[in-house]
Design a protein that fits this description.
By secondary structure, this protein is of the alpha/beta class. It contains 27 helices and 14 strands. The protein is globular, with a radius of gyration of 30 Å.
Length: 676
Amino acid sequence: MAVFSRSKKKAQPVSVAPDAARAHAVDDATEERIREIGRELLDVARGERSGLLSAKFYSDKLMDWSMKDHAFKVQLFRFVDAFPMLRTPDAVFDHLTDYLTQPGVKVPPGLDLGLKAGGMAKGLATSTISKQIKSMATKFIAGTDAASALGSLEKSWKAGMAFSVDMLGEACVSTAEAEMYRERYMDLVTNLPETAGSWKANEVAESDHLGRIPRTNVSIKISSLSALCDPIDTEGAIADLMTRLIPIIEAARDNNVFVNFDMEQHELKDLTIELFKRCCDQVPDFHAGIALQAYLRSAEADARTIADWALAKGRIVTVRLVKGAYWDYEVIHAEEQGWPCPVWTVKRDSDACFERVTDILLDACPRTNEDGGVKLALGSHNVRSIAYAAAGLERRGLPQAAMELQMLHGMADELKRAAIAKGWRLREYVPVGELIPGMAYLVRRLLENTSNESWLKAGFLDNADPEVLLASPHRAAPDAAANGSAEDIGEGVGERDLSETDPERHKLSPTVKGIGGRHDGRPFFTEPVRDFSHKSVRDTFDGAVQRAQVPPVANDTTLDAASAMVAKASESAGMWRDADPLVRARVLTRAAESMRARRDELAGVMVKEAGKPWREADADVCEAIDFCEYYARYAVGLFQRERLGNFIGELDELWHQARGVCVVISPWNFPLAISC
C-alpha cells in the first residue's frame, strides 16, 4: 500500500514497491472486523430480497434456463448479439432456429415446440423471444436517451440513490460520429441539471465528508469522441479529443456537473489517464473523476500514478474503482496476439488486487478541501470488497461519507437497499442508448450475472455460506463458486503467463529438435506483433524508424545479368536439394533469428521507403519470421524417405525434393514477407 505524509496542499507520497504490496495481509482483528461488517450488510440485503436475486432479472425463463445449461447460454448470447440487426420475424426465427438447434443445446420446454412448428406457433416463438430480449435490455439500460431515462433516474433518486449517466456507444469511426456524441454529452451536461435540480433534496446523496457534491453525474468514454483514438499517435489523439472534451468539461463546470472518465479496453488505458490529467490541468476547477480496473495487473501502479499526481498537484479527484468489464475480450485478444495477458486470469487475484488498490486510494484521501488527493468511489456488488473498504475507513479515522458506493442499474437491488439503510451514499451507473450500441453492454451484464463465479449469484441465488462469501481473497479460497475455480484460465499470482506456453498449448506444427533458433524443440507459434499501447514500445520503435536508412539501389541491372544470377543459383540447386533437411531447416531459423535481431530496423526501412504504417510494417517482419519458422518445422518431415507397402522384391519409397530455383519479385506492400 502507499503511505502518505500529509501536509497542506502538495503532500508528498511515499509508495511501497508493488512486489511488497502483493504480500498484503491484514491482522486477525482487522479481518474479523471486515467479516463483521460484511455479515451485517449481507444479513440486511438478504432480508430485503423477495424471491431470487434481482427477481425482475431472474424471472425471465431464458435467463433461468441459461444458468442451468451452459451450451444453451452460449447460443442464446450469440443470438442476442445478432438480434438488433434482424429486421423481419422470419430473420429472427431463422437465426433463432440456427443457434438453438446446434448439437448439445437443450431448449426450454415450450420454446422447442415453437422452433419445430410453423404457422402461428412459429410467430408466437418469434414474438416471445423478441419480447424477452427487449425486456432484458430494459432492465440494464434506462432509456434510449437522457429524456427517456428521466423517469428511471427520478425513481432511483426518490429511493435514495444518486446516479451517473453513461451514454452507450464507443469506438466511433468518423469525425461526424464523434461530433454526434459530443452533442449528446453537451445535452446531458447542460439540460439534465435543470431537471434533476427540481427533485427533493437528499443530504446523503448530495454531500461527502468535504461538503456538497454535484447532483448530476455523467460518465464519458473517450473512444466515442474521436475516430483518431490510437495510442500510436498519443499526442494527435489527445489533441483531437480535447477539441470536443474541453467544451463538454467547461459546460459541466458551469452547470455544476461531475464528469467521470470511463475506462475501456487495456489498449486505451494509458491514453485515458494522460488525457484525464491534461484536461484537469486545462480546466482546473471542474468536478473530475476517472475509473480504474482492478482486474488489470497494472492496477496498483495506475492507482499510485493518479494518487501521486493528485497529491503533487493539490487537486482533488474521484477514482471509481471497479473490477473491470472487458475480461473476456482482454484474455482472448492477448492470446490472439501472443502477448502477456494484461488481466488477472483467476478471479480471486482480481478481488485481492481490488483490496490492495482500495488501500492505496484510501491512503490518498483528502482530509480537507485544501488538500489534494483522491476520493474513493467503490464500484462493486461484492460484499467482501465493500466491507474491506468500510473497515479501511475506520482504520484511517475517515468518516463513512468519505467514500461512496457505486452499483450498476438493474442489478443487486437488495444490496442497494441494504447499503442505503446502513447510511451509505450510493450511486447507480445508468446506461442510456439505442439497442444496437447497447447490445455489447447487455451481453457483458448477462455474462456476469450467469457466471459460476458471480458473487451475486453465489450470495443471493445459491445462498452460499457467509464465511465462504466473506473469505479473504489473499488466502487459499475455501470455495470455488465464490472465489474462482480449478477451471480458471491461466494461473494465479506468480505463475507462468499463458503466452509462455502458447506453442505447446496450440501445437500448430510438429516439434522438431535440431533446427536451431531460440524456439528449437518447440512447435511453431506466430511471432507476436508489437503492443503499441505501451509508451516504451512506441519510443523504441520510433527511434528505430528515425535511424532507418533506405540503401540506394542502382536501377541498372540488365536482363542478361538477371539470367546469369538465375543460372548461378541453379548450379547450386542440386547441392541444396541433397543437403541434410536439418541443415536446410537451420538456415531458415538463422534467417528468422537475424530478422528478430533487426526487427524494428527492418520495419523502419519499410516505413521510410514504402510509407507503410507502423502496425503494418511490424506485421510484415513478423510474417517473414513466421514463414521461416513454420517451414523449418514442416520441411524436415517432408524430405525423409517413407516406405510404401511391402511388396516382395520391391522397395517403394516416397519423399519430396526441391523443384529448383524460384524468382520472387516482391510487391511494395509486402516487400519482406512475400520474398521469404
